[in-house]
Specification:
Strand 6 (about 95), helix 3 (about 115-130) and strand 7 (about 135-140) form a beta-alpha-beta unit. With about 260 residues, this protein is of the alpha+beta class. It is built from six helices and 16 strands.
């Protein structure tokens, strides 16, 4: 068993803690050993989701806490990737939320923090109330930002297009890895730039990417369908290659995997 993307994820945790003033109290190596121990102690033999968490200890201050809990929850995870997985092709209708994505002058969206998910909860509840499966944020400038729990990538004219970090998105490890292997391994051009909801509507394909989302195709946004084939051919190609990376079948990407 391997952990995918351990080093960049734990580096982001350390950066997030520094920005928000949290003191971890353990080394990165200690966190890795604790994670390995938890996986082995629970006897996991299938895919798992790992989510290290830090929060203030009770009685140490609401905003200026001096002591913190550090835990590593792990649970079974059912992937939607893999050949003939029926979940991959499920219909997913999204809507552009009336709630804007939080911006760096209020709460830093680049930081992995539970506080930021209140924004996502509002957008998700709105989408559910309107009968959709999820929501897409615009940033405070009106450009497309991200989903409520994952980054967004679109496909148009054979190119993958994704918003920049300055569009109030999480500094996603998975997004960064996708940008890298899509260009280098698959030879598909990637553009990182701002775009409007109008260009989103005009996309041939769209999918969300993240640790939990992996590569999740989207059928439509605001009831405007993407392309004539679902899931789209490029989305499918990317998802299949990512699945092979996670399984350790892509030699050039094995350094992304940390053995348990």
């Amino acid at each position: 068993m391997n952990i995918c993307g351990w080093e960049p994820h734990i580096d982001r945790l350390w950066r997030s803690a520094a920005v928000t003033g949290l003191k971890i109290g353990y080394s990165k190596e200690e966190m890795l050993e604790a994670t390995r121990g938890a996986i082995k102690a629970n006897g996991f033999k299938t895919n798992v989701y790992i989510q290290p968490r830090i929060w203030p200890k009770a009685g140490t201050g609401r905003y200026n806490a001096s002591e913190f809990h550090v835990v590593v929850p792990i649970w079974k995870f059912d992937t939607l990737l893999g050949n003939d997985n029926p979940r991959f092709g499920e219909e997913r209708r999204y809507v552009v939320s009336s709630w804007r994505r939080i911006s760096s002058d209020a709460l830093p969206p680049q930081v992995k923090s539970w506080a930021n998910y209140a924004n996502s909860a509002l957008a998700t509840r709105e989408a559910t109330r309107l009968g959709y499966d999820g929501a897409i944020f615009l940033d405070n400038r009106g450009f497309v930002s991200e989903g409520t729990g994952a980054c967004l990538m679109t496909v148009r004219n054979g190119k993958v297009i994704t918003p920049p970090v300055t569009a109030s998105i999480l500094e996603s490890v998975t997004r960064g890895r996708f940008i890298e292997f899509v260009e280098e391994d698959l030879g598909i051009p990637v553009e990182v730039r701002d775009f409007t909801r109008v260009e989103l509507y005009a996309a041939d394909e769209a999918f969300l990417c993240g640790t939990g989302y992996e590569a999740t195709p989207i059928t439509s946004v605001d009831d405007i369908n993407f392309g004539n084939e679902y899931p789209g051919p490029i989305t499918t190609k990317i998802a299949e290659h990512y699945s092979r990376i996670l399984e350790g079948k892509v030699k050039e990407r094995r350094d992304w995997l940390t053995p348990v």
